[in-house]
Design a protein that fits this description.
The complex is a heterodimer of chains A (147) and B (411). In chain A, 49% of the residues lie in helices and 18% in strands. Chain A has five helices and three strands, in the order ααβββααα. The chains are: A alpha+beta (147), B alpha/beta (411).
């Protein structure tokens, strides 16, 4: 049971049961679909952007505890952040989830997902929401640069 | 046969090194639909080949090359006899069931199908018996149709005339579902196919490991299965094809061993089955498969069948007792065995599989390479347990208690 706690921390179980910002958004600026072909899980991410800031963020979909908790905590951490900071957090989170090491101070509550790196088959679960976010940010970048 | 010959399971397990590692916790392996464990007899056959007579087949005139050829070819006879054909030319060794299907898709379907023709599959196919036909249809202009799946877990055969038409040229179906465990009435389906003049390919990857197969009685044109799901090494697939079918087909891969003569311009194909075995085959693995077949015959295939059925029906009833858990298929009156898929109303299959693994129980979670089946049940994934002859009732009880602990944990 001990090595179980390492992956499924209480915070993760809580976010799995009561995911935050788990709702449809009508007035989103951008949205994107995420799909994990390994397990068939699907996720939809909505972001409302005001200027350079993420003023609202939410998600819908089905997934395992790891993917749901990762998405839930992500929305908590990103709300109110600038797009540049979101980009930075994406890189730092991806680094943490693949190496297990925290090398930046913006990780915050996401630290509970550190244990995932020991389970390569679950890394994709934790990254699903983040890759979807990255798609949105890239889309947004494209829109911004072409304007 | 019957109870008399019902093997002492602990004695069976003693043949499998993976179940006897004192330095590791006991392995409860319930992913046998994916691959099976290997007995010492199989490992030893592979080892003996490499240690004592390793040489290429069909080439050398020296002693160990002849010995290797003899050992490799004797497995062809063994497989032929095992599946009920007297003609060894019917048996082609490939690297997997998937390759066997692709061989037929390329060498037969692409050569003979044309626009307007129909390929008939089912909604319960593994991707390996679906994607090659999608590709063949795209290439030839043929249309892909399918027999739908009922939620009870069986094929909807209520109006066969809708699926079997004068345009149907090939019927490709699995003998047993790798998700639901359902055994299809392939004999009946082959009959419908024959009535409209269609050829038939049966995917027996899940069926052959625990059931008696008689291809002559089935009268299918092609039958495919894998060695590694019946205790043989990985890397060996089998294609059974009727001789007249194999004769009309072009080679799948070109290279050494599949030709009679070659000039710079052209080649004359070797006889069947060698026409389809280009390059050095998986010699050691084929020899290992021979040992696996011997092992199965010693146990008696009927006893394997009844043991796996006993384990499956026990597990189905035990799983159905768990609140919040739903077993797919396995309804009364449907012939099903060895594979059980289920889901929990609140806990994701990946989380269940992960927790079971921490209790030493290996199960599968995901779509099992059969997404259309998952779609049928509006699921993105399920948990799958699958049994083989070395599994025990005690392991089922460990699974049940592991599931109870998992539910407790996620409550």
């Amino acid at each position: 049971m001990d090595n179980l706690r390492e992956l499924y921390q209480q915070v993760i179980l809580d976010h799995n049961k009561n995911p935050r910002n788990f709702r449809f958004m009508e007035d989103f600026t951008v949205k994107a679909d995420g799909h994990n072909p390994l397990c068939g899980d699907k996720l939809q991410l909505f972001i409302k952007i005001d200027g350079d800031y993420i003023s609202d963020i939410s998600f819908m979909g089905s997934g395992c505890a790891i993917s749901k908790a990762s998405a839930s905590i992500m929305t908590e951490e990103l709300k109110g952040k600038s797009i540049a900071d979101a980009e930075k957090l994406f890189k730092n989170f991806r680094n943490m989830i693949t190496s297990g090491e925290i090398t930046s101070d913006d990780i915050g509550k996401l630290e509970v997902l550190t244990g995932v790196h020991k389970y390569p088959s679950r890394v994709k679960c934790a990254l699903l929401a983040w890759h979807t976010l990255k798609n949105i940010l890239d889309q947004n970048d494209t829109t911004t640069t072409t304007e | 046969m019957g109870m008399n010959n019902m093997f002492d399971l602990y004695n069976i397990r003693s043949n499998f090194p993976i179940f006897n590692q004192p330095d590791l916790p006991p392995l409860v392996f319930l992913d046998n639909a994916s691959t099976t464990q290997k007995p010492t007899q199989v490992l030893e056959a592979v080892n003996q080949f490499y240690c004592r007579y390793n040489a290429n087949v069909h080439r050398g005139i020296y002693k160990i090359a002849e010995q290797a050829t003899e050992a490799y070819e004797s497995v062809r006879d063994k497989v032929a006899e095992f599946i009920g054909t007297a003609d060894r030319r019917n048996i082609v060794f490939t690297k997997s069931t998937t390759e066997s299907i692709n061989l037929v898709a390329y060498s037969w379907a692409r050569k003979f199908l044309k626009t307007g023709d129909e390929i008939l599959v089912t909604e319960m196919e593994h991707h390996s018996n679906l994607v090659p036909w999608q590709l063949a249809a795209q290439h030839t202009g043929a249309t892909l149709k399918y027999i739908p799946l009922n939620k009870s877990g069986s094929l909807d055969m209520s109006s066969p005339e809708r699926y079997f038409t004068k345009n149907t040229k090939l019927v490709a179906i699995s003998h047993q579902s790798n998700v639901l465990g359902t055994i299809n009435s392939v004999k009946e389906i082959i009959g419908y196919a024959r009535d409209v003049g269609a050829k038939t390919l049966i995917d027996g990857a899940q069926f052959v490991p625990h059931s008696k197969l008689d291809v002559q009685n089935l009268d299918c044109d092609f039958y495919v299965f894998s060695g590694h799901k019946m205790m043989g090494p990985t890397g060996v697939g089998i294609l059974y094809g009727k001789a007249d079918m194999l004769e009309t087909m072009d080679p799948f891969l070109g290279g050494g061993d599949m030709i009679l003569s070659v000039t710079m311009e052209k080649a004359i194909w070797n006889d069947i089955p060698y026409k389809f075995e280009a390059g050095t085959p998986n010699i050691a693995q084929v020899i290992g498969l021979g040992a696996a077949i011997d092992f199965m015959k010693n146990m008696n295939i009927d006893s394997i069948d009844s043991q796996v059925r006993m384990l499956t029906s026990t597990a189905v009833s035990r799983l159905r007792e768990i609140k919040g858990l739903t077993v797919l298929g396995h309804e009364n009156g449907i012939d099903s065995t060895s594979v059980i898929s289920f889901f929990h109303k609140d806990i994701h299959p990946h989380d269940i599989a992960h927790l079971l693994d921490t209790f030493g129980i290996s199960v599968r979670a995901g779509h099992h390479c059969a997404q259309p089946v998952m779609d049928k049940y509006d699921l993105s994934a399920s948990v799958r347990v699958s049994f083989y002859v070395y599994n025990t009732i005690d392991e089922i009880e460990q699974l049940i208690s592991g599931l109870q602990k998992t539910m407790e944990y996620f409550r």
